[in-house]
Design brief:
This protein is an alpha+beta fold. It contains three helices and two strands, in the order H-H-H-E-E. About 20% of the residues lie in helices and about 15% in strands. A hairpin with a 5-residue loop joins strand 1 and strand 2.
Length: about 120
């Protein structure tokens, strides 16, 4: 059994910059407001590998989520039957905000890829 979170293969050229999104929508920030929101904790990565370029922000979030999934026995790692279609997973990242719109923590969620 693995003790580390599952990860996909890194892209050929890893992205080092995060993408800024409008709070709560996931939509890209308009160019005019991007200058006002360039603080590191306002960046939300699009992949595990991109998140790990800022481990001080995202590593604890992934480890916390992975530990919870293991403790609750949400899954069991087994060898798939020959010819079976195995559904892959991916990490999704977001920030949690307080009522004033300030970031209070970074969140990570491991989800099934539900598309082909």
């Amino acid at each position: 059994m693995h003790n580390n979170p599952p990860t996909a293969q890194p892209p050929a050229t890893p992205q080092c910059s995060a993408h800024l999104t409008v709070m709560g929508t996931g939509a890209p920030m308009p160019e005019m407001t991007m200058l006002l929101t360039t603080l590191p904790d306002s960046q939300v990565p699009w992949s595990y590998w991109e998140a790990m370029t800022c481990p001080d922000l995202w590593k604890q979030a992934t480890e916390t989520k992975w530990d919870v999934l293991r403790e609750r026995e949400v899954f069991k790692l087994v060898d798939g039957p020959p010819g079976a279609h195995v559904i892959d997973s991916m990490w999704v990242f977001t920030n949690k905000y307080d009522t004033d719109g300030k970031i209070i923590r970074c969140k990570a969620c491991l989800v099934a890829k539900g598309y082909t």
